Amino acid sequence: MMLIAGMIALALGTYAFRWSGPALRDRIRFPARTIQLLEVGAVVLLAALVAVTALPTASGHFGFALPAGVLVAALLAWRKQPILLVILAAATTTALLRLLGLP
User: Fold this and answer.
1) In the chain, what is the greatest distance between 2 CA atoms, to the nearest angstrom?
2) What parts of the sequence cross the membrane (predicted)?
3) Mind listing the pLDDT tens digit for each residue in 39-90?
4) Residue 90 to residue 69: CA distance in whole angstroms
């Protein structure tokens, strides 16, 4: 019963959070500096996600294939390629380098 109550609470909270954006769009104005900081914060969070994903974990094994795939993705994203192409190119690069026996 407690699980169901938690699921309902999370569902209602998610719905309220998603509804608040369109409902408050015209009522709240953020200063330009705040918008700029939020945009920079999003880029920093994405860079941190890439770093955590591309660098080794507790195993200590640092192969060449994964950082190469991330580099390919970064280059394609920098050139403003479609996200599907970026993901497929990064996965293909990593898979091919591992298939060739590179760590």
Assistant:
1) 58
2) 34-55, 62-78, 84-101
3) 999 889 888 887 777 776 666 566 788 888 888 998 998 899 998 999 999 9
4) 4
